[in-house]
Amino acid sequence: MSATAKKRSLMPDDIRAAKGGTPLVSLTAYTTPMAQMMDAHCDFVLVGDSVGMVLHGLPSTLGVTMDMMIMHGKAVARGLNTALMVIDMPFGSYEEGPSQAFRNAARLMAETGAGAVKLEGGAQMAETIAFLVARGIPVMAHIGLTPQSINTLGGYKVQGRGAAREAMLADAAAVTDAGAFALVLEKVPASLADDITAQIAIPTIGIGASAGCDGQILVVDDMLGLFTAFKAKFVKRYAHLGTDGAAAIEAYAAEVRARAFPAQEHVFADEAPK
Ligand code: KIV
């Protein structure tokens, strides 16, 4: 789907229809300016619960709340015109069952204007996905490394190796049958991601999976080099804004301390109305 071909806001069905075509482009966003920068280039933008780690300094995504997602969702919505906005359901907002999930997904969509929600989990979430889809809530599924389950997965490890391979193929089929419009595959072996991509009818969106997926997503702070606490092997940094920013702040501090900062009265004189 080329950026220039876009004439209106993309819908979940547009994303679903991109299966097997030009790879879908996606990034996470949490603020209006970032969303504005990516709108022309991304098919969909995810207000990810990674916001907790990259913007709020939390140790994992588990502490992210509905209120945080709504605040960032509203900010991102103000920056988008054509890309579809998908918003993550935070940990604890959907796992109890379909009714809890519907209540919170409806709130996320109503209060932010998101066009779809994303939730983590495979076959165990199929009933919830079907319930949401039947009630007007498009769902993007997410399997493989699911960060909200970090405590049961035992770390940010590659998923779906060995005996877990068949279970992951079954998870992909289950969320597809339940009505998800796309599936995020995080940190799974490339051959498994390729098999899932070949076997299901909805687009796969890789993150540390395979270039053969129907699309790719990255956490924007990772690809811009803004989040430097750690870097997953699959992350390519397209810029180094974290180190550039730190150097800029150091230069500013040195100028202020040396009284080499631009003289304020000249700045104001230049700006005075003629
Ligand atoms: O929260 C997030 O950023 C995500 C992506 C890693 C897919 O779920």
Structural summary, described in words:
By secondary structure, this protein is an alpha/beta fold. It has one domain (12-241): Alpha-Beta Barrel (TIM Barrel). The protein is 41% helix and 14% strand. It has twelve helices and eight strands. An eight-stranded parallel beta barrel has the order 1-2-3-4-5-6-7-8, surrounded by five helices. It is globular, with a radius of gyration of 21 Å. 43% of the residues are buried. Bound molecules: 3-methyl-2-oxobutanoic acid (KIV). 3-methyl-2-oxobutanoic acid (KIV) binds at residues 28, 46, 48-50, 88, 142, 184, 186, 207, 217, 219.
The percent of residues in helical segments reads 40-55%
Radius of gyration: 21 Å
CATH class group: Alpha Beta
Instruction: Enter the CATH topology name.
Output: TIM Barrel
What binds here, in terms of ligands, is: 3-methyl-2-oxobutanoic acid
Share of β-strand residues? 5-15%
Overall pLDDT? 94
Q: How far apart, in Å, are the first and last alpha carbons?
A: 50 Å
